[in-house]
Amino acid sequence: MLVLHGASGPDSIDTLLDHLSVGHRVLAPTHPGWGDTQRPDELSSVTDLAAPADPVVSASFGRAYADAVPNARFVLIPDAGHLPMREAPDETLSVIDAFLADETLTKD
């Protein structure tokens, strides 16, 4: 089972991980560049989606995050909140499709 955690890292969900690991193999990675982990030297392409109505992660935080990553692209999904795939699926998928169509992502 893969458990992806929030900003406070896997230590914040120790109780959950202990419970799940009784009957399952559990992976709870610390995301590179998160907390005290080393940020990868190079990210080939990053697009950060943000939404003005997100009550959890502000658009200004999304902008600051994108600004902290070299060559990152910041995209605001105007009619969305915290769940842009539910709230503005067409626009969100359009941004994702454009990201995936980027020639720099194509492997040789």
List keywords for this structure.
single chain, 2 domains, two-stranded parallel sheet, 108 residues, 2 strands, 32% helix, mainly alpha
- Largest sheet: number of strands, sense, barrel closure: 2 strands, parallel
User: How many beta-strand runs?
Assistant: 2
How big a fraction of the residues is strand?
Answer: 5-15%
Question: For the CA atoms, what is the radius of gyration?
Answer: 16 Å
Chain-averaged pLDDT: 79
Task: Give unreliable regions as ranges.
Answer: none
- Spatial order of the strands forming the largest sheet: 1-2
How are the SSEs ordered, and which strands pair?
Blueprint: H1 14-21, E1 47-50, H2 59-68, E2 73-76, H3 84-87, H4 89-101
Parallel strand pairs: 1-2
Task: Provide a descriptive summary of the structure in words.
It is globular, with a radius of gyration of 16 Å. The chain has helices at residues 14-21, 59-68, 84-87, 89-101, and strands at 47-50, 73-76. The model has no long low-confidence stretch (mean pLDDT 79). Strand 1 (47-50), helix 2 and strand 2 (73-76) form a beta-alpha-beta unit. It has 108 residues and is mainly α. The protein folds into two domains: 1-32, no CATH class; 45-108, no CATH class. The protein has a two-stranded parallel sheet with strand order 1-2. 32% of the residues lie in helices and 7% in strands.
